């Protein structure tokens, strides 16, 4: 008991150090050069692609640092993710780390983001420039949403990836919640294959509603390939409820732990 009591402050100090290092990366990396690169990306012939590739390297750096400062976390990511092209990636959602991890491994990708994020200085500009879609079609976001969605099919045909979290919010329990019909409609209106992945333990490393990472506890962070649905399959274009049930079953299926 005494050892546990003395260990608790050390764990909190370690978690605080990891948290400050991880989130401090964003400011330091931006000031150290990424800020200038983002500014230059707007002058490229294809600025959207340039912004997406910069996001990719920005978040790769973040996870490289996180692996260094939190070595008790083991990472097992499905090789199918790196092979994703011209498809819609669908995942469960456990942590703010989830979209960052996808961007770190998908050089060319876009997603639907909370509308309020587009109002943030600099960050909102990066989201718009990278072609991300606001989740709201009301007020000031109506035109932006239509503009971003207009070229989606062409974007996917040229090798881009759209990733979505069809639950719409992070799960605090880890269980897969109800899937939003709007996300599923967008996914199949794209006409692209649906590739399903499952996150495990990102919500334990960085839980919803907490500032501190829980980096002192050893665990395996997994992103597992759960299945693929081609446009020609009946469930793809059938009743939306059947597609939702099928996807929910894939997302809820437990991933096999590594040996």
From TrEMBL:
Pathway: Lipid metabolism. Residues 87-202 form the Phospholipid/glycerol acyltransferase domain. The chain crosses the membrane at residues 20-44. Keywords: Acyltransferase, Membrane, Transferase, Transmembrane, Transmembrane helix. GO terms for biological process: phosphatidic acid biosynthetic process. It holds the Pfam family Acyltransferase. GO terms for molecular function: 1-acylglycerol-3-phosphate O-acyltransferase activity. This is Phospholipid/glycerol acyltransferase domain-containing protein. It comes from Desulfobulbus oralis.
